Amino acid sequence: xxxxxxxxxxxxxxxxxxxxxxxxxxxxxxxxxxxxxxxxxxxxxxxxxxxxxxxxxxxxxxxxxxxxxxxxxxxxxxxxxxxxxxxxxxxxxxxxxxxxxxxxxxxxxxxxxxxxxxxxxxxxxxxxxxxxxxxxxxxxxxxxxxxxxxxxxxxxxxxxxxxxxxxxxxxxxxxxxxxxxxxxxxxxxxxxxxxxxxxxxxxxxxxxxxxxxxxxxxxxxxxxxxxxxxxxxxxxxxxxxxxxxxxxxxxxxxxxxxxxxxxxxxxxxxxxxxxxxxxxxxxxxxxxxxxxxxxxxxxxxxxxxxxxxxxxxxxxxxxxxxxxxxxxxxxxxxxxx
Length: 337
Ligand code: AHM
Ligand code: MG
Prior knowledge:
By secondary structure, this protein is an alpha+beta fold. Helix content is 29%, strand content 24%.
């Protein structure tokens, strides 16, 4: 069956009708997020012509210098989402604390979390970047309004997760828990069009993604896994591996969804007190759910990422995700250590 003419709106309406997996507030939420991503895509496309490149000379809560586009994307997502009545609050990699929906607007039953512009180091060099988002249900109201603690739910509680990649094409990838669908932005129509459904990641792969410049800082299980990949045909794996590292998680995960592979951002010795670089709630949880929904796996080296109960909003985590057999292998090396 040709999927050419199915817009995101139609897809969501049909899901709602078929199996009720998308209640109407959630459908509105996803449409609004998609619309915001279209706006961000416009700014990304304009680049230097729109004056959006370069640094904003401010720092986020994690002490990282913000790019202008980090701030623009954050504002676009907040402004698009605060008035629709579908959300109670938002949390972002770029904001210190949660953003409540202002009193002048109705409050909805969902919480939205996002990394507005992932892969920031690639903005100024015209390489793929993206937006990652995760949706949780607001817990029962205890009379105190929405609190940060309401967000601290395991990734297994997500009701929707997705990302939009701003690359040669602008592509939205989405799961609501019944597989992974992909929509490509048709710029002439101004709408996202379904281009792939039921995406599956092959269980085996010969491709890994890791920042090799950190090799000397890794723990032994990661040294062992990568060492065996690098040994190629002559080594214990008996096959040659290829490597890719885009330094945009969105782009690396997208490649893995399209053709398999394993993505790793492990703990390392430079900052032993941190579990890793990537953020559990804005990056690891949504990507892990997407990957699992596509038949892959995601762990922190020891446990399934989606089972981790966050202790704080900006928590970091080590990430191993992608083709199932490889993720299981590198996880087993951690168990054996
Ligand atoms: P960001 O959200 O500030 O852009 O940081 C996250 C990004 C990931 O997209 C990517 O996988 C990683 O940082 C790259 O890190 P490094 O530059 O250490 O290779
Ligand atoms: Mg990021």
